[in-house]
């Protein structure tokens, strides 16, 4: 694919250059007129800025008011600036400003910070508010909290830092998808992914990279659509958790909303920053399988001893190197700000042949025009180019067809290579040498994505502003997957498939905001219109029966030259539109009593003709008790606010056109029209129309309290929420005489999530040389399905020999969503046979003996984050954990005792249990394990060097960091924080671990240099 760039001819730049010179001359003349020459002959003033506890303040802006000259403090709080004695400097940092008159050649400034955090500004939907004025459940993270570890995407940055937000890897593969859920699981079919909004542009949750074709090894899971962002560019992440905060996004806010804001230029001297790290990753743990010696001793059939000695986990996994380089430039002027960055990440996967490479470029610019900055124009633009190399590890390949399960099942007495130096041929169906499988498989994906928007804000009157937001999100992706001719029973003659995807998302929004004050009454009113269009199109084709690897031109280079077409050129295209009207009123009386009310009307092409529009209201109230007279002068309570809210949001994450009828021509529906007995294709109905289909609606109430005590020594919030999904969209049987067996329609069923959230923080120590901050968050959730109009819904396909069509999850009234449904394992009899509970007492074990077990949703999740700084040394760590959830260890089900009777390896604990190798694999509670764990998620140690003698460098910080360093758990799989997508009939699966690409533990060495 080629990208052509048209450049201006050089001569066309001459008028621009002349204009630039004239403007600079005019600016110089204005400066000389404003500041006489004798005032510009200054001396060097040396100063230091510390906070109220005596600790150095880095990044404070120092400005000489008489001349406008600025400087920025370094890591030690020091600055130098040109000024005269008698002039005044302004020192500003984090919303605080202090004026100091210069009395000598050295200046010491002690910043007095605000007593509490209530003046902090929080990003909300379509604007920002002071934290003191918030009435909804909103949490915000800032850039300084993103320091730890190697994080590819923005969702990884939230892990363990926000109460009620659970981040689970779907795979440890670089760039792989991440499951984010806020306050539990609320849908059967529509997923639980929140809406992500980047710099005001709502993103689609659809895949943006080309789909993985199946060349006999299954389809790999979709990659993370957020992996295009450079995490170093992110300024803040704000999570809107309750309906009051999220209702302004209407039909897409049911799973919560995540607002991502990227960095802008900051006041002070221009800043150039270089971030880099080099990391090394290895598999988080190894499964406890038989070694070659142990396998020989356990064998009953000695023909399965092949004389070798191989640890196949060591062969397939590697120590993977990763590196990242990011440079950025930021600057702010009196009228605008500018930020530009470029980064390159190169991450090897811990499985051979897998990798992720990303190059990004970002430009953020803001400028003001006309009198008193009446017009402000902001441009945000990011472009990323991602190159990925995948491995054959499709989760839907059944009991075989995955390189990781082949490595785990491989007989340890086999050798990697045979006597001739070639890969050993196992000569088995559905079981292959994993290194050979990797050698004949090639999967490359290239994805180019551009996300940008332009915002224009015009002040019409004092307090009345009009805002226009135009955004675009454009992606092109090409995937080339080749299975070369091979000696397995998986496409032995070779298969090549090219898949292409183009996706397009355009946004138009305009709205008015009006802020005004009447005595003690403060109002902020918002009203606007939004239109967003999503379009995606794909093409694909395939060839087979081409030359062996290395014998000719690979098909990805010239598919027309190689082989024969078996998938002719094909494609698809679809689009949907969303048209919305929204409004919000914020009212504040005397900084004590707060009211927020909002409503959004969404019209979507995805829904039926009779329900095109949905309406999503919310209301919230707050009482700032600390501003009452009886607490205003309290030495203990700095802030105390009580909040309550109610609202409705929607969920429209469903396939397009499902409300429309669909037909096809086929011979099976054909008939004989003429006497020549030629069969004429007939019309068959594929989908029954249902024009009454409407959104899933989530109704949520929330009660919260915010507090800050003892001059911010202890601060936090406590929330209680009750969240119910109504009008659930299900794919259920149609009534009698319908042309199809199933259709999509709304059900009376509900999925209810209730729980508490606690966030606690403390500035434990704040002195000149030592600071220590600690925060703890925890959340509970109780999930319940009720009022379903069907008996039950099953999902969660289980893979394994003889387990085709077996599912593990069930949605049933009175139970948790995705509860597990299977036989109850009791133990082993004297002959080593498995014993299962005979529920119906008929003396036989069958479908009627299945029981419902606790589900996969943890009832408690928590995170602990700490940051310390002693002089120039900084140290931070974070823990995450959960309890109360379960996992189906489908990997263990494939490594069962029966493998000893079939030339495959087995988990030690099955062999040590005394079970007979003749036991057949059977889904039961034997493979149901608790997913409780506590993990040292990140740890970081850094040192900032004193470089005051270098005029060209502001600061240098060197650090060492580690991720997933150790985990305490009884779970026997690779990682208890995992969820393999194994849906059945479109219903989402929960809590299944099937030979997923393992997580990694990582150590990295990094540096941050500021110039």
From TrEMBL:
A Gene Ontology term for the protein's cellular component: cell outer membrane
Secretion signal, residue range per the UniProt entry: 1-28
Keyword Signal in annotation: yes
Transcription in keyword set: no
Membrane topology: Multi-pass membrane protein
InterPro entries from the UniProt entry: Beta-barrel_TonB, Beta-barrel_TonB_sf, CarboxyPept-like_regulatory, Plug_dom, Plug_dom_sf, TonB-dep_OMP_SusC/RagA, TonB-dep_OMP_SusC/RagA_CS, TonB-dep_rcpt-like
Compartments reported by the entry: Cell outer membrane
Pfam families: CarboxypepD_reg, Plug, TonB_dep_Rec_b-barrel
Domain TonB-dependent receptor-like beta-barrel: 416-965
Keyword terms of this UniProt record: Cell outer membrane, Membrane, Signal, TonB box, Transmembrane, Transmembrane beta strand, Transport
The TonB-dependent receptor plug domain, residue ranges: 131-257
Major localization listed first in the record, in broad terms: membrane
Source organism, top-level taxon: Bacteria
Family listed: Belongs to the TonB-dependent receptor family.
Protein name, as recorded: Iron complex outermembrane recepter protein
Organism: Epilithonimonas hungarica
């Amino acid at each position: 694919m080629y990208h052509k760039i048209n450049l201006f001819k050089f001569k066309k730049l001459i008028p621009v250059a002349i204009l630039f010179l004239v403007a600079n001359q005019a600016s110089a003349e204005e400066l000389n007129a404003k500041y006489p020459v004798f005032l510009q002959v200054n001396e060097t003033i040396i100063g230091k800025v510390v906070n109220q506890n005596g600790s150095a303040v880095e990044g404070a802006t120092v400005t000489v008011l008489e001349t406008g000259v600025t400087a920025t403090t370094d890591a030690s709080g020091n600055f130098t600036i040109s000024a005269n004695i008698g002039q005044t400097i302004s020192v500003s940092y984090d919303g605080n400003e202090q004026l100091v008159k210069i009395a000598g050649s050295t200046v010491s400034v002690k910043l007095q910070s605000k007593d509490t955090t209530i003046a902090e500004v929080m990003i909300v939907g379509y604007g920002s508010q002071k934290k003191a004025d918030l009435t909804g459940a909103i949490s915000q993270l800032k850039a300084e909290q993103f320091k730890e570890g190697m994080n590819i995407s923005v969702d990884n940055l939230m892990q363990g830092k926000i109460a009620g937000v659970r981040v689970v890897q779907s795979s440890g593969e670089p760039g792989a998808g991440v499951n984010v859920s806020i306050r539990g699981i609320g849908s059967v079919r529509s997923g639980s992914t929140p809406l992500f909004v980047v710099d005001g542009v709502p993103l689609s949750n659809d895949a943006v990279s080309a789909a993985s074709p199946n060349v006999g090894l299954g389809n790999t899971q979709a990659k993370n659509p957020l992996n295009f962002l450079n995490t170093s560019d992110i300024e803040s992440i704000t999570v809107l958790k309750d309906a009051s905060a999220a209702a302004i996004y209407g039909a897409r806010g049911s799973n919560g909303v995540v607002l991502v804001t990227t960095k802008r230029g900051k006041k002070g001297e221009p800043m150039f920053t270089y971030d880099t790290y080099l990391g090394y990753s290895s598999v988080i743990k190894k499964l406890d399988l038989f070694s070659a010696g142990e396998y020989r001793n356990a064998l009953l059939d000695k023909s399965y001893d092949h004389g070798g000695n191989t640890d196949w986990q060591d062969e397939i996994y590697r120590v993977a190197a990763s590196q990242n380089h990011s440079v950025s430039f930021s600057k702010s002027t009196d009228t605008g700000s500018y930020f530009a960055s470029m980064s390159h990440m190169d991450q090897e996967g811990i499985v051979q042949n897998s990798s992720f490479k990303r190059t990004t470029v970002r430009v953020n610019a803001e400028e003001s025009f006309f009198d008193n900055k009446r017009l402000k124009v902001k441009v945000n633009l990011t472009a990323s180019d991602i190159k990925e190399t995948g491995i054959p590890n499709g989760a839907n390949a059944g009991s075989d067809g995955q390189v990781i399960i082949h490595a785990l099942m491989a007989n340890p007495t086999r050798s990697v290579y045979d006597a001739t130096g070639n890969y050993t041929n196992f000569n088995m169906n559905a079981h292959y040498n994993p290194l050979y499988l990797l050698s004949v498989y090639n999967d490359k994906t290239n994805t180019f994505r551009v996300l940008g928007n332009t915002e224009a804000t015009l002040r019409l009157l004092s307090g009345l502003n009009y805002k226009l937001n135009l955004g675009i999100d454009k992606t092109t992706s090409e995937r080339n997957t080749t299975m070369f001719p091979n000696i397995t029973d998986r496409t032995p003659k070779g298969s090549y498939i090219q898949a292409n995807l183009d996706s397009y998302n355009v946004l138009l929004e305009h709205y008015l905001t009006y802020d005004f004050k009447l005595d003690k009454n403060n109002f902020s009113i918002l009203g606007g219109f939004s239109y967003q269009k999503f379009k995606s199109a794909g093409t694909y084709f395939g060839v087979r029966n081409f030359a062996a690897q290395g014998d000719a031109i690979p098909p990805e280079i010239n598919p027309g030259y190689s082989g024969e077409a078996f998938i002719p050129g094909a494609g698809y295209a679809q689009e949907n539109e969303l048209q919305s009207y929204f409004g919000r009123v914020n009212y504040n009386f005397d900084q004590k009593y707060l009211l927020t009310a909002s409503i959004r009307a969404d019209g979507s092409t995805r829904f039926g003709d009779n329900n095109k529009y949905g309406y999503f209201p919310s209301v919230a109230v707050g009482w700032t008790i600390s501003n009452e007279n009886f607490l205003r002068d309290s030495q203990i309570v700095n802030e105390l606010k009580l909040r309550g809210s109610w609202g409705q949001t929607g969920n429209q994450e469903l396939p397009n056109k499902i409300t429309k009828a669909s037909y096809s021509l086929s011979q099976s529906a054909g008939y004989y029209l003429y006497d020549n007995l030629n069969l004429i294709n007939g019309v068959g109905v594929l989908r029954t129309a249902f024009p009454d289909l409407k959104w899933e609606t989530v109704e949520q109430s929330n009660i919260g309290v915010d507090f800050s005590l003892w001059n911010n020594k202890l601060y936090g919030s406590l929330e209680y929420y009750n969240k119910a999904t109504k009008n659930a969209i299900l794919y259920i049987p149609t009534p009698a005489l319908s042309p199809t067996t199933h259709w999509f329609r709304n059900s009376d069923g509900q999925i209810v999530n209730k729980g508490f959230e606690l966030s606690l923080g403390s500035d434990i120590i704040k002195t000149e040389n030592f600071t220590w901050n600690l925060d703890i968050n925890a959340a509970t959730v109780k999930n319940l399905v009720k009022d379903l109009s069907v008996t039950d819904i099953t999902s969660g396909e289980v893979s394994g020999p003889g387990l085709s069509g077996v599912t593990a999850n069930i949605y049933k009234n009175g139970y948790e969503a995705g509860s597990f449904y299977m036989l109850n394992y009791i133990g082993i009899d004297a002959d080593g046979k498995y014993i299962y509970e005979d529920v119906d007492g008929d003396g036989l074990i069958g479908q009627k003996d299945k029981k419902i077990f606790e589900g996969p949703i943890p009832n408690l999740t928590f995170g602990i984050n700490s940051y310390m700084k002693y002089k120039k040394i900084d140290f931070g760590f974070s823990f995450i954990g959960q309890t109360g959830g379960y996992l189906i260890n489908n990997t263990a089900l494939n490594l069962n005792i029966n493998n000893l009777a079939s030339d495959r390896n087995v988990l030690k604990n099955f062999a040590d249990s005394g079970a007979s190798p003749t036991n057949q694999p059977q889904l039961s509670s034997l493979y149901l394990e608790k997913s409780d764990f506590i993990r040292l998620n990140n740890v970081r140690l850094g040192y900032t060097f004193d470089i005051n003698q270098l005029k060209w460098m502001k600061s240098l910080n060197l650090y060492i960091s580690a991720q997933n360093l150790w985990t305490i758990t009884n779970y026997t799989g690779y990682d208890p924080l995992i969820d393999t997508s194994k849906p059945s009939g479109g219903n989402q699966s929960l809590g299944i671990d099937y030979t997923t690409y393992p997580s990694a533990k990582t150590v990295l060495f990094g540096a941050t240099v500021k110039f």
